[in-house]
Amino acid sequence: GEGKAEKLRNIVEDLDAKIVIFDAKLKSSQIFNLTKITGCEVIDRERLILEIFSKRATTTEAKLQVELAELIYEKPRAKEKVRLARISEQPGFYGLGQYEIDIYELHLSRRISKIKMKLKQISKRRDLYRIQRQKLEIPIVSLAGYTGAGKTTLFNNLTGDTKEMSESHFTTLTTSTRKVELDGFKLLLSDTVGFISRLPHYMIDAFKSTLHELTYANLILLIIDVSQPIKNMVRQYDSCVDILIELG
Questions:
Q1: Please, which residues bridge with residue 222 across strands?
Q2: Closest to 84 (Cα-Cα) out of 20, 36, 25
Q3: How far is residue 100's CA from residue 166's CA, in Å, rounded to a whole number?
Q4: What are the distances in angstroms from CA 115 to CA 37, 49, 119, 129, 153?
Q5: Residue 126: C-alpha distances to residues 140, 175, 177 (Å)
Q6: Are 141 and 221 in contact (CB under 8 A)?
Q7: What is the C-alpha separation between 245 and 232, in angstroms, rounded?
Q8: Which helix (H) or strand (E) holds 78?
Q9: Do residues 100 and 49 lie in contact, with contact meaning Cβ atoms separated by under 8 Å?
Q10: Looking at beta carbons, which pairs linking 202-206 to residues 24 or more positions away fall under 8 Å?
């Protein structure tokens, strides 16, 4: 409502804030109106996750997956963005008519199809590696868990690898697999992308080729960070189980 929006504007002024982040999903019109009222950038939870993904993506596959998620996020908002841009003459969409909107939507659809094809090719290559691994008849253990739970730290300790570790979220966006020998027992250990609560379905879909690796594991080891309050542990555990169920 107007009262809450006004209160928000006052908070922004008092704090001299440069950006407002909502822990919710916002429509383009809501972002537009709130930006106008507060006079600073406004983003929602999904946009924030995408921006973090984008900064963390280092491999070709991760970059493609992030771009796919961004395009799927953008597509339903395209028409509304163009309409609002016309009203306020916001930069980015100067003088766009219906014809140009159709072209923009077509461009998004084509790019989505192109990326899906590229990811399919990468997935086929991964299938070949998987078949080769299965021929070795060595059990696969996948480390799964909430983002920042310590999967990569454990992976490095067990494999002797030096994968980047960080307290920041989503340092790992692609699956890594290494051969390990523990007390004379050989296995393949996989480090996977971290989960997050309320992850939109389209983001899970975009990362499906990476997350799908979990479905081929003989054992999924769910990592929980016990240094946090019980309430957080329960919420994160439930989120992980929900995503694992969705992956089948």
A1: 144
A2: 36
A3: 43
A4: 37, 20, 6, 21, 31
A5: 15, 10, 11
A6: yes
A7: 20
A8: helix 78-88
A9: no
A10: 202/69, 202/72, 202/73, 203/46, 203/49, 203/50, 203/69, 204/243, 204/246, 204/247, 205/72, 206/65, 206/66, 206/68, 206/69, 206/72
Residue 90: predicted pLDDT = 47
Section 128-135 average pLDDT: 76
Q: How large is the greatest C-alpha to C-alpha distance in the chain, in angstroms?
A: 69
Provide the residue type at 196 as one letter: I
DSSP element (H, E) containing 115: helix 98-135
Could you tell me if 40 and 67 are in contact, meaning their C-beta atoms sit under 8 angstroms apart?
A: no
| CA–CA distance, 147 with 138 (Å, rounded to integer) | 27
Under 8 Å CB-to-CB from 183, ≥6 apart: which residues?
A: none
pTM of the model: 0.69
How sure is the predictor about 18, in pLDDT bands with cuts at 50, 70 and 90? very high
Give residue-wise pLDDT tens across range 141-186.
999 999 888 898 899 999 888 777 556 655 656 678 888 998 889 9
